[in-house]
Every structure is written in C-alpha cells, then in structure tokens.
C-alpha cells in the first residue's frame, strides 16, 4: 500500500511527497482539502476528526487523481466541480474555472436589482455559472445564457439541471450573430475573453494548458473586440433604460468607459474588484 493506512488523513503526506516539485506545502494542503470536500463531502475542519476509511478502489482512485495533478492539471478539472456563489458547478477543459472576480460581478447585479421579474442574458456563458447564480437568487427572473461553444453549452445545461433551475441556453457567435431573437432583456451581462495574448508569459502553465483559450484570449491589436460586438448586439436586444454589466481587463477601465459612452450609455461606472483593480463596468442604455 502506498500510504501508511487507509484512514483519510493519511493521504495528506502522500500528496505532499508526490506534489512537492510542483507546489509549495500550503498549496498542496489547499489542493488536498479541495479534493476531500468534493470527493468525500468532508470539510477542512472535519478531516482531523474524520474516521472515514478508504476502500481499495478509492485508494486506487487517489493514485489516479495525483497522477493527473502531476501534469499540472487544476484540481478543479480533476474533480470536475467548483463552488460558485453557493452552487456546485461542473467544469472541464471546455469551460473556464470561475474566478472570484466573477462572483463579485454577480453580487453587484443582485445588490442593484431586487426580486421583481426581470429578463437577463449572459453572453459567453461557459459553464453557466453566472445565470445559475442569478436564477438561484432571483427565481422569478427569466434567465438565459449564450455561447459559441457547443461543448460548453452541454456543461451549462447539465449544471442548470443539477441545480434544478430552468435556464435557456443559446448557441451563437457574438462576433457574427445569425439569430435575431425578438426578446429584449432588462439586463445583459458578460465576462468575455479579455486576457491579452501578450499576457500569456505572465500566466501559470496550468491555466495555459487546461483552460480553453477561446474563452480567455483576445488580440493585443483589438482588446475591446468582444465588448464592441456585445454593445452592437445590445442595441437590438437590451431594453431602453436596461443595464449592461461587464467584467474587464484591469488595464482598460478608461477605454471601456469611453466605449460605453460612444454607444450612448448613461450612468456609466468603472468599479474595482476586492484587489482594488478596475474589474467591472456598468452602464444604462
């Protein structure tokens, strides 16, 4: 046996030995606790007192998990799940791992709009995490998500189903939209690709290897490409006096303010994330 015992806490030293070349001790502990929660439903505070013993098949599965981690695959992809705004969301290599900044975007929308029925569209929905979080907290709203990736939309539909939520998902290329739905939305939200290609050299290898580049990167020559296309789409599909919410690259707050103004938006605000970086732009049509 590759561990001293089949007690759950005995796995942690195994993780530390195997993963020490890739991660520091604190990060390995975080990975381990993440795995334990999603694989066994046991929280970090419960592990030390846990009497959970692993079967032979579960131990073999742990070896398989560590083998994948040794390729630098993110633990979120290995276990296939993340927690986002109190919902469990399935993720894989076709979807981005939701970031805390996107939870801040959801939080902003919920704080600014109450429970009366509204319509909302999330453009570039990926795993569906934004519409799922919104619908869960605003059950009377009619919520939709749009994405170019059919593979991502499969995951988004599975996530809506597993969270027992009715959400409409649409396959569409926002850069070249073909459908012209008659519905007009009260709110359009988007976390589109905004990472510059030149930023790749600053990024962790596991992000570059395992997150879908289609959902991450935009060319340095036209960094606001997706925002401009979404604003053009919103001219047809956002109600007058409706609101638009964007997550943005920290370097383009002023440019995004100017872009929304050029489309005639009012009440424009550039808002920081919890790190103090420009991260959200909102405006009213």
TrEMBL record:
Gene name in the database record: prmC
Superkingdom of source: Bacteria
Gene3D superfamilies xrefs: DNA helicase RuvA subunit, C-terminal domain (1.10.8.10), Vaccinia Virus protein VP39 (3.40.50.150)
Alphabetized Pfam families for the sequence: MTS
Enzyme nomenclature, EC number: 2.1.1.297
Catalysed reactions, as listed in the record: L-glutaminyl-[peptide chain release factor] + S-adenosyl-L-methionine = N(5)-methyl-L-glutaminyl-[peptide chain release factor] + S-adenosyl-L-homocysteine + H(+)
Database matches in NCBIfam families: hemK_fam, RF_mod_PrmC
Key words, A-Z: Methyltransferase, S-adenosyl-L-methionine, Transferase
GO MF annotation terms: nucleic acid binding; peptide chain release factor N(5)-glutamine methyltransferase activity
Alphabetical GO biological process terms: methylation
Record's signal peptide: none
Record carries keyword Methyltransferase: yes
Organism listed in the record: Putridiphycobacter roseus
UniProt domain Methyltransferase small: residue ranges: 119-199
Name of this protein: peptide chain release factor N(5)-glutamine methyltransferase
Keyword Endoplasmic reticulum appears in the UniProt entry: no
């Amino acid at each position: 046996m590759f561990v001293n015992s089949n007690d759950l806490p005995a796995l942690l030293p195994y993780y530390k030995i195997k993963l020490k070349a890739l991660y520091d001790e604190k990060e390995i502990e975080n990975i381990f606790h993440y795995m334990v929660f999603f694989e066994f439903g046991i929280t970090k505070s419960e592990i030390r007192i846990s009497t959970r013993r692993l079967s032979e098949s579960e131990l073999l599965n742990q070896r398989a998990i560590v083998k994948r981690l040794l390729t630098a695959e993110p633990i979120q992809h290995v276990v296939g799940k993340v927690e986002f705004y109190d919902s469990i969301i399935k993720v894989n290599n076709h979807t981005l791992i939701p970031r805390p900044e996107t939870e801040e975007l959801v939080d902003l929308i919920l704080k600014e709009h109450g429970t009366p029925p509204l319509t909302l569209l999330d453009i570039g929905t990926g795993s569906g995490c934004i519409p799922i979080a919104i619908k869960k907290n605003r059950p009377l709203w009619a919520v939709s998500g749009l994405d170019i990736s059919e593979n991502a939309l499969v995951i988004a539909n599975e996530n809506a189903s597993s969270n027992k939520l009715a959400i409409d998902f649409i396959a569409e290329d926002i850069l070249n939209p073909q459908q012209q739905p008659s519905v007009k939305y009260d709110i359009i939200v988007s976390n589109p690709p905004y990472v510059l290609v030149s930023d790749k050299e600053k990024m962790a290898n596991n992000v570059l290897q395992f997150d879908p580049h289609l959902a991450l990167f935009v060319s340095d020559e036209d960094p606001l490409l997706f925002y401009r296309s979404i604003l053009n789409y919103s001219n047809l599909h956002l109600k007058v006096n409706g609101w638009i919410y964007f997550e943005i690259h920290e370097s383009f707050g002023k440019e995004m303010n100017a872009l929304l103004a050029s489309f005639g938006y009012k009440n424009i605000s550039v808002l920081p994330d919890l790190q103090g970086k420009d991260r959200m732009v909102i405006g009213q049509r």
